[in-house]
Amino acid sequence: MFLLLLLSLVALLLGGDAQDRAALWRGNDRAGRCQYTFTVPSPTEASCPQTGGPELEGLKARLSLLEVLVSRLSGGDTGGPGGAGAQSELQEALSRAVGERNLLQGEKQRLEQEVQGLQRRMEEMRRETERLRSRPCPPQTPIVPPSPPLQGGGLTRPSLGSSPMSHLMSRPNRQGDSSSSLRDSAWQVGSPGFQELKAEVTEVPAPDGSEGHTGCGDLVSVGDPVTHRRADNIEGKYGVWMQDPEAVSPYGANMIWRIDTVGSDVRKLFGYDDMVQLTKGFPSKVLLLPEQVESTGATVYRGSLYYQRRRSRTLIRYDLASESTAARRDLPHAGFHGQFPYSWGGYTDIDLSVDEQGLWAVYSTNKAKGAIVISQLDPHSLEVKKSWETQIRKNSVANSFIICGKLYTVASYTAPNTMINYMYDTETSQGRSVSIPFKNKHHYNSMIDYSLAQRKLLSWDNFHMVSYDVRLGRPQAN
Ligand code: CA
Predict the structure, then answer these.
(1) Could you list which residues have their CB under 5 Å from ion ligand 1?
(2) Looking at the domain assignment, is residue 405 inside a domain?
(3) Which end of the chain is more exposed for a tag (fewer CB within 10 A), N or C?
């Protein structure tokens, strides 16, 4: 206080000249305390020799900070954690964009191929239509053709046999299209191939069923192959066809069943009233199985379809009358999906068949080291009743079939003239080599089984459904 008074006094003493150049200020500082400031111009200096002070230093510091921030945002500083993170995010977004672009390009190519395929098919159909228009129709004899399917409305047709209409025949498939896929593709009345079909039918004799071997015996010889039907598309390159030796109502004893087995979703089971309808390609029944079929090893027996579920050792008994699964059971230790197939491959790991003694499974296990194992199954529960282990490797033979409890193996699936080369008798548990000629007429036999119903061998040879007469003789000593 004393100092302030002294300063005021000095100011007053300096007089008027000094009053317009000096100033006394009073005001509260930041803390709220009253503060006096006395300023006097320099008597000698027109300006300060250097500028600076806390404000300038502050500005410099803020400018440096801004420079660092700008550098980071522009990506110039990759060393800091913020820069690395931003760059990683950018890289990730770029990768996603590139991946999506590649996916779209792939999809575009697929669609373009599909369009090209459809265009080709349209062109083929147009040419076929022109060809048919230019050809005069021959006068029709009063043949009663099989009743036509309902075009576009399902697959039902008036039944010629005892089979009733099935609600499944109009059940849509997974794509919701009930008219296109659940059908024998030749079943198109009025289609371009109809005239040719009739011609083909007249050339194929109906099975006479007169082969009179009712008793059992050793296989002596196999007749020449008789072709009954050719599959219409690639799905039928491999397949299985079969007849129930003890058919159950509503299906008649002549009912023939067929599965085309090429594809990743094999579930369609076609039923034909008899061999004639199979030959013509007119199914009276089309069932969509609840689970996918693996390969060509299926069989029918006592009103059930028996098959191996895809990619598993699970056997399924599908009841044909109720159209539902009646039993399912794993075949213990059986190889599946290419572990122990026949020599042609095709996931033929488990081969089911029926003979005079019941239901059989032919397969292999790790314990058997790839040798053929034969098991007799309970047809109701699918339990193994008894098993036999043979000395012949499953992948060294093309296929096998069982007649009267005896297993026979076929050497080649492609050779036009091959041999049945081995026989194993489950009654004596003994096997031996045999040499019985066998013909692969179409050079790629994917299924061979004995049909107890027809007492013939049935095979599926490169799109073709083929049968062979067999001759049995007196059992030979092993
Ligand atoms: Ca077989």
Answers:
(1) 351, 399, 449
(2) yes
(3) N
